[in-house]
Amino acid sequence: MARGKSVTIGDLTFSSKKAAVDYFMDQREQVRASGPVTEGALFDQLADLFTRYCNVTPGYALNGRHITGFEVDYELRDNGGYVQHLCYKVKFTNHEVRPFSVNKAVSAIIEAERF
Fold first, then answer.
1. What is the per-residue pLDDT for 98?
2. CA quadruple 114, 17, 23, 98: dihedral positive or negative?
3. Confidence (pTM)
4. What does the pLDDT look like over 71-94, one tens digit per residue?
5. SS3 at position 84
6. Per-residue pLDDT averaged across 66-73, rounded?
């Protein structure tokens, strides 16, 4: 069985993709309850995650936008039927708010680091 590849996001090093994803997903309820994350360690970690995700994913360029915060709210998804999931959303200086997948972001970073 293949061992998970470690990944560093912000100031944290995770032993596997699952550990990194779980770390962020386990904080969704708290972030949703407390409001937007605009500073501190979690902000820095999410900013690193999202920025690196954009750098390795075509079509996700920041295009001069700057991140002002992160929030968590329900996002409607089509998984064979429409359901709502708690989802991280990034907020930009131009007031745009975009949902993003922590799982896809971590996967993209790990995949890009393989080469």
1. 94
2. positive
3. 0.90
4. 999 988 776 677 788 999 999 999
5. strand
6. 97
> Domain locations in the chain?
7-113
47 falls in which pLDDT band (50, 70, 90)?
A: very high
- Phi and psi (nearest 5°) for 26? -70, -15
Residues 93 and 10: their CA atoms lie apart, in Å, by 21
Yes or no: domain 7-113 corresponds to CATH 3.10.450.40: yes
The answer to whether 106 touches 96, Cβ cutoff 8 Å, is: no
- CB under 8 Å to 74, separation ≥6 — which residues? 84, 85, 86, 87
Which residues, in sequence order, are CB contacts of 108 under 8 Å at separation 6+?
53, 56, 57
Torsions phi, psi of 105, nearest 5?
-65, -50
Q: Both ends of the chain: CA-CA distance in Å?
A: 21
